[in-house]
Amino acid sequence: MPQHHYKGRHAVYIGMVTPFTSEQPRRLCRNIHSVHFGMATPFGRNLHQLKLPVDMERIIEISDPVYTFSEVMEHIDLRKYVAERKDCSTGRPKYDPEKLLKVILFAFMEYGYCSVRMIEKLCKTDIRFLWLLDEVNAPSHMTISSFIKNELMGSVDEIFSDINGYIFEQEQVDLTHVYIDGTKMEANAQKYTWVWKKGTIRSRNNVFGKLTELLNEVNASVLSAFGVKYEIRQEYAIGYVEYILQTFLETVGMTTETFVHGSGKRKSKEQKLYEKIEDCLKKLKKYSERIRICGEKRNSFSKTDHDATFMRVKKDYMGNDQLLPAYNLQMVVCDEYIAHYGVYPYASDMDCFQPLMEGFAKRYGFYPRYPVADAGYGSFNNYLYCQEHGMEKYMKFTMYEKESKDEKYRNNPYRASNFDIDHEGNMVCPNGKRFYFLRKAPVKGNQYGRTEEYYQCENCEGCPHREKCHKSSQNRIVRINKELTQFHEEVLENLNSIHGALLRMNRSIQSEGAFGGIKWNRSYKRLRRRGMEGVILELGLISCGFNLHKYHLKRKTVQKAA
Question: Is residue 154 domain-resident?
Fold first, then answer.
């Protein structure tokens, strides 16, 4: 089928002409900056015609986010984030790494999270991505995936810092007031492949007991004739069990090549004992590796993602939760921008506060003056950490709501904090009985070594207030940490002030609003990558896109107001 090219003064038409097409020339295009592609019909009409302007900027709206994105990228040196590659004489020409980085960041800016296949499709169909590529062919999803994995794995944090540096300078962001919040995000791991540390330790102890029985049998029935005896222990190291297996064969004069296997073969007593000890050794190695993966602070991990910990994750709007492999994502928000982020395998937010603040100080060179967080972060150790680093205490504690709103609870005369103090410094109950110091002991389960003082009433027998005071059959014992009580009083004073009320209101808007925008507005409710490094990379790209998108929206609002 012949092709006809009709040339006008400023336009070109490229089309397929059918055998029934009239010989008259087709009407020339009136758009002086376009190229037409189409198929002609026997009646001279073009049913499928596409007009592409030579200058793509003519059809991209002036208020499009791509212009805001380009503005930010122009003030950042993108070359330092990608490694220089040598030109190869063979194969396809390499893609420009700066353009690849631009299309990836812009995809995360527009869609929150964007898969590599979606980015590939956008580079072929979206005119804004075509404009960013600047006449470069669209990369494949494998090229994009390799670039993210190899080039951005270690540099995404620096990219995030540079983007924030430009945006924060333009917006005059206040980094002294920070709002902290966290969420547990389901990991990309199998839900039912959990490994619990306590169960593993219990199974390992059972193996220790079985080894003791086997060694007793070996010493009594096999090695007694050779005058050899293995030491019986409560716990057995892997090296010691390997030594037993090696010396056992040498002592009885056997090798593994002489062992029999299969049906109809009778195993010797020595072979049976050796195989049982060998099986115990395999189990010890497996349990030791699992305990090592868990570490000191974690209680579990997933077999398909060793860095994921099983946590209670909210699954619906009613707050119903499930035990799922997840990561604890933490964010520090300033003026609606994400100033810092962190990924931790700990279920408790209390354990995440200090490493989160250390990361913030490393990024900006100072600690924030007013860190505001909910009751999940309020603990003695975190308050002490704030005091040591010049941070005010604006983090709620567990009983903050009752302390501030429940007047009956706050003024209860039977609370130890409301007891009178006599001239000797002893607490006095409502019945006039003194409390005397018993001992000072560490708090059970506290990994930071916090201690409490125990005080006991001198005599509770026949007290008319006993039913209201306590239910114990003995004299009442109270536990007090005076320093923690002072911290709570300081937190109450800070949060109940006018400044504290404004900070509490802003925290619910900014930090929780950031997670709400990411999870609900942009449908990012589950992690896509595995491993700690992959999750940090993913969260870093999402944080970059979030800040770029927020910057565009604020600029758009200012332009409308003007």
Answer: no
